[in-house]
Design brief:
By secondary structure, the protein is an alpha/beta fold. The chain has helices at about 5-15, 15-20, 35-45, 55-70, 90-105, 125-135, 150-160, 185-200, 225-235, 255-260, 270-280, 305-320, 330-340, 345-365, 370-380, 400-410, and strands at about 30, 50, 75-80, 110-115, 140-145, 170-175, 205-210, 240-245, 265-270. An eight-stranded parallel β-barrel has the order 2-3-4-5-6-7-8-9, surrounded by seven helices. α5 links the parallel β3 and β4.
Length: about 425
């Protein structure tokens, strides 16, 4: 970690207005998502973890790992997870702030709303209220995920909702998320979205793609298509947009190294693997939970949860027909019992998460020592607001709603919107 003078100055000027208001006496360096992205870009060929904080144990472990690696990181939760996890859009920042102060965490952390999903046009109106309320509660970054919509409606949703995102905040957009095996994202549709946003003076920090992504627990290890990702990133290179990689669990470490080294990805989401590791479930080399011959998870002895509590959770899941990836829905009903375990058990759960996240940050993502680069970016800007990476390139007159709707209809692609719940 850099010198204390730089850190103290970053605390003074680097925390966004909502964080200053909520936590006026805090020593937690909660920053805009832009700061995290810029730190990875400054190092080059680096991406950091966006750790899904479904539980307080996972948040603790991820923060401990980042401190150890001196890496700037992101803690996130998806919009849908706010319905079935104890951590949600409105208390995530409070968890992060409290743990940073308690554990003397001094690395920069962004608080991100992942997959703020717009699945139909009628979702836009309530989102105009929900998004500001979540920033009031401490968000510093958000992913507007209207990828479920056709291309012109995706663009319209981003144009509409961008007004409700603070200019200083991290901004992720998304294309192609649910198209399935026959509908991977293309350079054409990614360019359409980014060009259209640019014409409306919207400059996102990240774009997420369907590039072979899997979410949750998958039997296949087919994994991320690195070459497709690189091709798309090159197609939109002049707009200054970084990549956000979803579904990182399920990919071997060499493939993840290539994503960091060969593409413009700076943010890598990890969710299910962290949950399972915290619980003491055995995972394979791809970060996916291993399954026994009866289709159940393999709980390791002397790891994660107390075995008695684990058995109770499995019984609850069986009774309520909760299987596979839907085990994530056990977080809310069992958080209090998880926290009521003895200190040694809680500590080993957090330590297991720490070890896994540290390995990713230090050995795989090339994110070590990016904390110092994030602080340098704040000090150079003399502000919490680093401004956009992009600038106006497209002619707004060519991107009126009528023109971009017609242009979208001409994009040739194969849709497959019948698939899964990819919100997390």
């Amino acid at each position: 970690m850099g010198n204390s003078t730089d850190f103290n100055r970053a605390i003074e000027i680097g925390r966004p207005p909502n964080i200053q208001r909520l936590f006026p006496h805090s020593r937690a360096l909660i920053v805009s998502g832009k700061v995290i992205d810029r730190a990875m870009r400054a190092k080059g060929k680096a991406m950091t973890i966006a750790a899904n904080g479904r539980s307080s144990i996972v948040i603790r472990g991820a923060l401990m790992a980042a401190q150890r690696a001196n890496a700037a990181i992101i803690i996130e939760i998806a919009k849908s997870e706010s319905n079935y996890c104890p951590v949600n859009l409105w208390n995530l920042a409070r968890h992060v702030d409290a743990f940073c102060n308690e554990m003397n965490i001094t690395i920069p952390v962004a608080v991100h709303a992942d997959h703020f999903s717009i699945k139909q046009i009628s979702d836009i109106a309530p989102s105009r209220i929900i998004i500001p309320s979540a920033f009031d509660a401490g968000l510093t970054s958000i992913a507007i995920d209207a990828s479920h919509l056709i291309d012109d409606e995706n663009l319209k949703a981003n144009i509409d909702l961008s007004r409700f995102i603070p200019a200083w905040a991290g901004y992720e957009t998304e294309v192609g998320e649910i198209k399935g095996k026959e509908g991977l994202s293309t350079p054409q549709e990614a360019s359409f979205l980014i060009q259209g946003m640019n014409a409306h003076k919207i400059y996102p920090d990240w774009i997420a793609l369907n590039n072979g992504t899997t979410h949750g627990i998958e039997a296949s290890d087919a994994g991320i298509n690195v070459e497709l990702t690189r091709e798309i990133h090159m197609a939109i290179d002049k707009y200054g947009v970084s990549g956000a990689q979803h579904g990182t669990s399920g990919n071997d470490l060499e493939r993840l190294k290539k994503i960091a080294a060969d593409t413009h990805t700076t943010k890598a989401n990890v969710a299910t693997a962290l949950q399972m590791i915290a619980w003491g479930v055995k995972v394979n080399a791809f970060g996916n939970a291993e399954i026994d011959d009866k289709g159940g998870f393999i709980k390791m002895d002397n790891a994660g949860l107390d075995n008695e509590l684990w058995n109770e959770m499995v019984s609850y899941a069986d009774k309520n027909s909760i299987k596979g990836g839907d085990y994530k829905k056990l977080n809310l009903p069992f958080e209090n019992q998880i926290l009521s375990q003895d200190a040694q058990t809680r500590a080993r759960m957090a330590k297991a998460v720490e070890e896994f996240v540290y390995m990713l940050l230090n050995d795989t993502f090339n994110a070590s020592n990016t904390a110092d680069l994030a602080i340098e970016a704040i000090l150079e800007a003399e502000s919490y607001d680093l401004g956009p990476k992009g600038s106006l390139i497209e002619d707004p007159a060519e991107w009126t709603e009528a023109k971009f709707t017609a242009r979208a209809r001409a994009i040739d692609k194969k849709e497959d919107t019948s698939g899964k719940d990819y919100d997390d």
